[in-house]
Sequence to fold (172 residues):
Amino acid sequence: MRWFVFFPVTLAIVGGSIAFTGAVAGRSDQGAAPVYVTQIPPGYRDWRLISVAHEEGNLNSFAAVLGNDVAINAYREGKLPFPDGTMIAALHYSHTPSEENNAVFGREQSFVPGPPTNIQFMVKDSKKYAATGGWGFAHFKDGKPGDEAFMQTCFPCHEKASRDLVFTRYAP
Ligand code: HEC
Fold:
């Protein structure tokens, strides 16, 4: 008599755990692993200015932050989250004193972009890059993409930005 009670319950538990395992496997099959951007978006150098930034510490760099039309429109309209198709570039250069300009000033006053250090991108595609908040991250040094371990650092830090993973505000 007891079997009539236990058997279906056991079956349900076993069945349930198979279904659960199946769901987990299914999810990882669909590419929950982060996907990075490995091609430099064409035409990025013609995008428009969002803002500039200067970092000290080990980097000692200038950044020009540019956006494509979708990015610029979203910023100007205050649209958050950023729509799919948004692309933001951070072009980094070493922060270098200008001998030519300083000779005119008579003291070390002028700093200009030195050689490029790297270019970074954030590309919004909420489906393709679902595992990293809808943003595909890209980093290129001398035209070569960053390695996997380095690329894993982008999302956990950008997740701390309060405006859809983007730190830079629009400079009027
Ligand atoms: C430790 C935190 C941190 C990590 C790691 C990091 N970033 Fe950022 N990122 C920032 C901050 C803060 C800014 C804005 C200030 C600045 O530009 O210096 C920024 C700016 C950017 C911007 C301009 C858009 C924005 O959010 O302001 C892009 C594009 C970008 N980062 C891409 C990347 C990529 C690609 C990686 C990984 C290779 C990466 N970042 C790793 C903190 C981080």
